[in-house]
Amino acid sequence: MMDNLNFDSNFLAHNTESCLSKLNKEENWNRLPLINSCSHQNLKDGQLVRFRGMIQDMYNPVLYFSSYAVRNTKTNETLIRCGKYKDSLEYSEEEEFLFESEDNINKERRSVYCVSIPALNDWAKLPLHTSNESLVNHENAGAKRNMEIDEEESSDKSESNITKRLCSSQESASNKQVANGMEYDLNLPIPNLMDKACIINLYDEDGSNLKLNDVVEVAGFLSFDSSTTCTINGDFCTDDEIKFPPSSIVPRLHAVLIKDAMSFNPPSNLLSTDDVWQNAAYLQKELKLVLTQVLFGDILAADYLILHLLSTVYKRQDMMALGKCSLNLSNIPSPSLLPGYTKKLYSLLSELLHKSHFLPMSLTNMNSVDLIPKKNYETNKLISGQLQLSNKTHLVLDETCMEAGKLDEKGVRNIQALGNLITFQKLDYNFQFYPVEIDTNIPVLILSEGKSMLNSDCHVVLQPDKMCLLTINETFEAAKHFMKDPLLSRLRFYLSSIPFKDHEIPSDLQKVIHEDFVKLRQNDNKFSGDDLHILLVLARLHSLSKGQQLLTHESWQTVQDMEEQRKSRIIKK
Fold it and tell me: Which residues contact 359 (CB under 8 A, 6 or more apart)?
C-alpha cells in the first residue's frame, strides 16, 4: 500500500524523519509530479514535486529565518513559525513580525540554477507522470513577505517597505510582458523547446558536495510566490535579480531530498546489472554486428567504436584523465559522395546512448557558436555554452562539413577548447578576468575525411567494403529493425553500466605487461609511455566489454593486435 504524501512544509519540518522515510521509497518517489514533463499550469504553489536536471549555475549562500516570531496584535499572543522550505514570512494582517525576538533564528541556504539535462536523448527522458491525488494542502497563510535577509541588511524598515513595493511593481510589469509574449532566455547549453529550468534552494548539508554540471533529481516544495519571483539572493530586489525570469517561467523549488545521477540511471526497471554483466559477451557481439555493418563492414573500426562508447574517466592522476579514449574515424565518405551519412550514424548512436550531442564543425559554425560558458558580471549569471555538459555525455564532431576558409578569433578559441577537452578532459570557463578550470568526462568521437585537425587517443582509418557503400541506406534501415526491445534496452543498459565496473590487473600479468613494454620499445624506439597507457586503457575496456573484471592474457594480446592493425592502416594511408 502506498504511503500518504499529503503533507506540507510545516508538517515536514516537524516530522522530518518519517516524511523522508516515505519519500525514499521508490514507489512514492515516482508518484511525485515531474516538473520537466508537466505544464506549470497544472502545478500549485507549495506542491511537493520533482525536478530532474543539471546544475548550470551556483549562487552564493544567503541567510533566511529558519524560525521566527509573530505577535497577534489583537490577542497579544506570540507564535513561533517555521521558515524552512518557504520564500516568505507568513503572517496575517492581524499579526506583526517581531524583529527583535530571540526566537528568530538565522540559517544559511544556497541556491543553484538547474536546467533539463542537456543532450538527453528522447528515449531516456522520463515519461509524463500524472496523479489524481493532491499531495499537499494548499492553504493560504495570509500576507507574505520575503524571508531571505542579506548579511548587510538595512535597519531602516520604512525604506525596506518602499523597496519591496517597488520590487512588486516591477514584477507585475514583468508578468505582463510574459503575457504579451515576451521571451526569457532559460540559459540552456543546448536549446530545446521542451527543456525547462528551475532554481533550487538547498538547506542544511543537503547538496554540500554538489558541483557545477552535476545531474540530480530533487524532490521539494514548489514556489510560485509572486512576491519573490524577481529575487533569489536576498531580501530586496536588485536590478540584477529582476533580470531573472519570473517564477511562472523558472519555478523555485525548496529541496527536501536529492538523488544523484547514478540513483536513477538504469534505462529499464526490468533489467538488472547482474543480468547485463553475465551476458556482456553476447551483448558485445550483437553490438559489434550492428556497428560493423553501419561502418561499411569494417570490423576493426567497430571494435574501436565499442571501446570508445564504453570509455569513461575513472581517475585523475598527474594531470592525466585516466580512462578516456577519444576516437577519430577518418576516411569517412564526403557529403557529396554519401550525403547524410554522419547524421545517420549519429542517429543510430543516439538510440543507444543516454546523452549525446552532434556538433557540425563547419567554418560558419565554429566562428559563431558559443562553446565555452562565460560569466556575465552585470547579471551575475554564468552564460551557458554548448560544451557545458554533464558527465558521460557523448560528443560527436562532424569534420566532414568543414570547408576552406579562415577561422576568426572566436573560431580559434572554439578549436582550442575542443582540443583541451579531448586531450585533458578539462575546460576553461571564461570568467573574463581569469579562467576557471572545470574537469569533464565527455567521450569525443570525431568523424572526418582525412586525419582530424584535432588530436585523439586513437585514429582509425576506415576501410569500407564497396558493396557496403552501395547499400548503406538499406543497412541503416535494417539496423533499426534489428535493434528492438528487448535487445535494444539491454544494449542501452550495457553501455551505461559496464563503464563503471571495477577492473584489476593480476600480478602475474603485470610482469608480462612490463616485459612486453620492453620488447615494444626495442622494436620501435618511438613507442612511449603514452602508447603503453593507451594499450592499458584499451585492455581495460576490452575486458569489461566481455564481462571480465580481471585483465586476461587474451584481452592483452587482442588489444596489441588491434593497435598493430590500426597503426599499419595509417602507414599505408
Answer: 365, 369, 386, 395, 396, 397, 398
In DSSP notation, 374-417 reads EEETTTTEEE--TT---TT-EEEEEGGG--SS---HHHHHHHHH
Given CA atoms 277, 259, 17, 19 in this order, what sign does their dihedral have? negative
Q: Are 39 and 22 in contact (CB under 8 A)?
A: no
Residue 243 burial (CB < 10 Å; 0-12/13-18/19+)? middle
Taking CA 234 as the corner, what is the angle to CA 233 and CA 238, rounded to the nearest 5 degrees? 80
The DSSP 8-state label assigned to residue 561 in this structure reads: H
CB burial of residue 345 (10 Å; 0-12, 13-18, 19+): buried
Q: What is the amino acid identity at position 336?
A: S
Could you give phi then psi for residue 568, rounded to 5 degrees? -65, -35
Q: From the DSSP assignment, how many helices (H) and strands (E) are in the chain?
A: 17, 22
Q: pLDDT, tens digit, for every residue of 253-286?
A: 999 999 886 544 444 555 677 888 999 999 999 9
**CA-to-CA separations, 346 to 118, 487, 505, in angstroms, rounded:** 16, 19, 34
pLDDT digits (tens, 9 = 90+) for 459-515: 999 999 999 999 999 999 999 999 999 999 999 999 999 999 999 999 999 999 999
User: Is residue 443 within 8 Å of residue 392, measured between CB atoms?
Assistant: yes
The half-sphere exposure of 189 on its side-chain side, counting CA atoms within 13 A, is 28
Tell me, what's the pLDDT at 44?
Answer: 87
Which backbone phi and psi does 289 adopt, to 5 degrees? Answer: -60, -45
Q: In 3D, which of 11, 15, 13, 35 has the Cα closest to residue 223?
A: 35
Domain boundary assignment for the chain: 9-264, 273-496, 501-573
Residue corresponding to grid cell 519519500: 23
- The residues facing 490 across adjacent strands are none
β-strands 62-72, 95-97: how paired? antiparallel
> Does 181 score more than 90 pLDDT?
no
Distance CA 349, CA 520 (A): 35
Hey, which residues does 395 pair with through a beta bridge? Answer: 357, 444
* Cα distances (angstroms) measured from residue 73 to each of 78, 103, 143, 334: 9, 18, 15, 80
Average pLDDT score over residue span 140-168: 41
Beta-bridge partners for 255: 220
Q: What are phi and psi of 537, to 5 degrees?
A: -65, -45
Q: What's the rounded mean pLDDT across residues 535-549?
A: 97
Q: Measure Cα distances from 456 to 315, 325, 327, 328, 362 in Å.
A: 19, 8, 6, 6, 19
Task: Look at the chain and count its residues.
Answer: 573
The grid cell for 135 is 499531495
DSSP state of 562: H
Per CATH, the number for 273-496 is 3.40.50.300
Residue with cell 516515505: 22
Tens of pLDDT along 411-429?
Answer: 999 999 999 999 999 999 9
Rounded distance between C-alpha atoms, residue 504 and residue 508, angstroms: 12
**Cell numbers standing for residue 267:** 534505462
CA–CA distance, 335 with 401 (Å, rounded to integer): 7
Report cis status (omega within 30 of 0) of the bond before 246: no
d(CA 355, CA 192): 14
Please list the residues that pair with 110 across neighbouring strands: 202
**Three-class SS state of 85:** coil
**So what's the pLDDT on residue 151?**
43
